[in-house]
Amino acid sequence: MPDKANLLGFDAAGLERFFAALGEKPFRARQVLRWIHRAGEDDFAAMSDLAKGLREKLAAAAVVAAPRVVADSVAADGTRKFLVDVGNANAVEAVFIPEDDRGTLCVSTQAGCAMECRFCSTGRQGFNRNLTTAEIIGQLWLATRALRGGAARLGGAAQGAARERPVSNVVLMGMGEPLLNLDNVVPALRLMLDDNAYGLSRRRVTVSTSGIVPLIDRLREECPVALAVSLHAPDDALRDRLMPINRKYPLAELLAACRRYLERAPRDFITFEYVMLAGVNDAPEHADALVRLLADVPAKVNLIPFNPFPGSGFERSPREAIRAFNERLNAAGLVTTTRKTRGDDIDAACGQLAGRIQDRTRRAARLARVAT
Ligand code: SAH
Ligand code: SF4
User: Fold this and answer.
1) What is residue 353's predicted lDDT score, i.e. its pLDDT?
2) Same-domain status, 131 and 90
3) Please, which residues have CB within 8 angstroms of residue 311's CB and are 6 or more apart in sequence?
4) Is the pLDDT of residue 152 over 80?
5) pLDDT at 361
6) Ligand 1 centroid vs 173 CA: distance in angstroms?
7) Do 225 and 245 lie in a common domain?
8) pTM (2 decimals)?
9) DSSP character string of 85-105
10) How confident is the model at residue 160 (pLDDT cuts 50, 70, 90)?
11) What is the domain range of residue 252?
């Protein structure tokens, strides 16, 4: 018998095609989409407004299978980290960050990452594989369910609970480079936006990229959501050193792609992330160069205090240097904020996500040799 289809990985169009193949109408697919994603239901038998025959047909042909949570830890500040099993001894991380006015889930898109950014723990570990759509959306599915305390039963009074959305924002800032997995990321984004699923507005879903120019254009065509770009340096020489991708797509090309993206973007600015590395990119001259670089791109800058990990070879800029850098950019008219470090006592802060990756690229060993 062929493997059962995992319905968690289908966006609305995919699910409609699956239902058509079963001889079922598209509105049935939408009904099931609501059960899976709005109610968090994985048991067809519990989908009470479907005919019994259809429930049995689905149970025979399909499953709703989210990846398994192998560890669930909560930091002192309420940040919650889910370690998610993605098979073959690989695990990735999803992090929930509660704030007064929103709840943000940081989602991973690959097991490891092939980009080799020097200051990133995920990049140091090498790459194993792309996550499937089911594994990507599965992180939102399981986090929503865990935060609600289980599946919400649709129907009657429970309807309200089903609509409760503990996750109001999603950022693709976990492990991996999302644009290198667009085939699986785009259907997951569509589910995040779908009113029958998570119903988030495009402004509340952010893709963060190290800057792969042609794929920024592809995202703009296929599913424009808010865009964050990891900049980290104001000139090519320094960015080449910190992020090898810059040798392929230097700053002028990257910023041109950002301007093109803004024609379709749901927000009228790009967020530029800038990790603060002591003595590397945190001098006043770097701030001035950044202001010049971003002069003709509508931009907001988000400074990220570097989060150390063993053997990184970098240190976080002193608090005073970060404050001065932030002020210098603001004074020059560049809207800048400094990201609060959250969840660092459970290694859940930006760039600390390690998961458990079987490196298929031998990158980790090679980078370790380079570092010594
Ligand atoms: N691969 C994507 C998204 C994941 S990383 C990207 O690079 O944009 C999310 C953010 O954390 C990126 O801006 C990344 O550069 C930053 N980051 C990586 N390592 C870090 C570290 N050790 N401390 C602080 N931020 C880090
Ligand atoms: Fe990959 Fe992003 Fe880390 Fe670079 S910063 S290695 S692109 S996860």
Assistant:
1) 65
2) yes
3) 124, 368, 371
4) no
5) 77
6) 7
7) yes
8) 0.93
9) E-STT-EEEEEEEE-SS-EEE
10) very low
11) 68-371
Q: Examine the domain organization and report whether 105 and 238 are in the same domain.
A: yes
Which domain-ending residue is among 63, 82, 100? Answer: 63
Please state, rounded to an integer, the average pLDDT across all residues of the chain. 92
Q: What percent of the chain has pLDDT over 90?
A: 82
Mean pLDDT of 133-158: 82
- List, as one string, the DSSP characters of 18-79: HHHHTT--HHHHHHHHIIIIIS----GGG-TTS-HHHHHHHHHHEE--PPEEEEEEE-TTS-
Helical (H) or strand (E) element with 169: strand 169-172
From ligand 2's centre to the CA of 92, what distance in Å? 14
Residue to substitute in 106, 107, 108, 117 for testing ligand 2 pocket (most ligand atoms within 8 angstroms of CB): 117
Distance CA 355, CA 69 (A): 12
CA 174 to ligand 1: nearest atom:
4
User: How large is the average pLDDT for residues 349-366?
Assistant: 69
**138 and 234 in a common domain:** yes
Report the CATH number that the domain containing residue 38 is assigned in CATH. 1.10.150.530
- Catalytic-residue membership of 93: yes
Q: For residue 295, give the CATH number of its domain.
A: 3.20.20.70
Cα 228 to averaged position of ligand 2 atoms, centre (Å): 13
To test the ligand 1 pocket, which listed residue (104, 216, 304, 316) has its Cβ within 8 A of the most ligand atoms?
Answer: 304
56 is a catalytic site residue: no
Q: How many domains does the chain have?
A: 2
Confidence at residue 352, expressed as pLDDT on a 0 to 100 scale: 64
